[in-house]
Fold:
Amino acid sequence: MASLPSGWEHANGTNPHGNDATEDLDGEGHDNTGEFAAGTAANDATSRFELRLLPVPGGGWQAEVFTRAGRRYQLQSGASVVGPWESAGTAFEGMDAVVAVPLPAASGT
Ligand SMILES: [Ca+2]
Ligand SMILES: [Ca+2]
Structure:
């Protein structure tokens, strides 16, 4: 039994009759479940979720988020990868483009 919606599977070239949710059809490192959640194409390696952290001249950091229209994004930060996590900045709408988000300074700096 497939775990992803059949319509999405047909549109993305994955197998609607088998469970290939953990496979990576286009080989770009994101499995089919991740592609579905991110709104990216499972059959196109150039369509993938990506976030880059870039230093800002003069200090601080900026995130570049590869967004998809129809998705809402909220960056979060934490002192460790296991959390706790807190919202960083305000949520924003995706627009099928890269969105630059200035990151607030870490507390205590
Ligand atoms: Ca993939
Ligand atoms: Ca992809």
